Amino acid sequence: MGDYKICIFGSGGVGKSCLVIQFVQGVFTPKYDPTIEDVYTKTLEIDEKQYSLEILDTAGSDEFSSMRDLYVNSGHGFVLVYSITSQATFNDVQRHYSRIIDIKDIDTHGRPAIVLVGNKCDSENERVVSRETGQELARKWNCAFLETSAKDRTNVSEVFYDLVRQIARKNQTSRSSQPSPPTTKKNPSGSGKVKERDENPFTSPTTKPEDKKKPCCVIL
Ligand SMILES: Nc1nc2c(ncn2[C@@H]2O[C@H](COP(=O)(O)OP(=O)(O)OP(=O)(O)O)[C@@H](O)[C@H]2O)c(=O)[nH]1
Ligand SMILES: [Mg+2]
């Protein structure tokens, strides 16, 4: 089973948490509750293979920090999110990309697996970033691009499926970038939020509260 660590980056309020929660739990949360840092897990079956994802949902308000550099170092794939209703968030996503490229050893491992996401595509009347502008940036970065709506679940699963496939392809072609072997989790078959704030969010997951436990979720 592949064990993949995925980081979600983007400005505050673009919908990072809503995208992850919609993907993992299948619900939309209209109330804005700024994230400090959360890790979610989900088990997927894609192309007849099992993948265990650890998804790190970061704080959009945080300035770049050494913690963030640590996430980038240990992450296998990245979702860079802006809102189609905010030009500033589109500009910010380019700073996140530059940071990832600075930290990852591209000469050794090639370009990291990335999906550029323009969220809130349900809010067409508030759109200020055109689809073409997003596509153009993704072409420049040579990465995947999707417009999503966490609200109505448009393209939400597709983001993570695409990323997992990218990581799997990269691992096939480069043995040196193999992800770490599966670790024993306290909720091994679970699907949900597993921890909040920790020294290294990817290395020591704690059991999530009992009342939030979900049964194993496998997407076929
Ligand atoms: N219309 C619409 N609203 C959305 C969508 N996704 C998120 N929102 C709303 O945008 C606000 C911010 O969403 P969050 O998911 O908390 O944003 P975030 O990027 O995690 O923000 P930080 O945790 O502060 O970095 C909330 O009020 C959400 O309900 C979407 O696809 N469409
Ligand atoms: Mg959040």
From TrEMBL:
Gene Ontology CC entries for this record: plasma membrane
One Pfam short name: Ras
GO function term, MF aspect, one: GTP binding
SMART domains: RAB, RAN, RAS, RHO
Classification via CDD domains: Ras
Annotated spans, Disordered: 170-220
Subcellular location: Cell membrane
Biological process annotations from GO: signal transduction
UniProt keyword terms in alphabetical order: Cell membrane, GTP-binding, Hydrolase, Membrane, Nucleotide-binding
EC number: 3.6.5.2
Domain of life: Eukaryota
Biased composition annotated in UniProt, kind: Low complexity: 171-189
Enzyme class: hydrolase
PANTHER family found in the cross-reference section: RAS, DI-RAS, AND RHEB FAMILY MEMBERS OF SMALL GTPASE SUPERFAMILY
Protein name: small monomeric GTPase
Organism: Adineta steineri
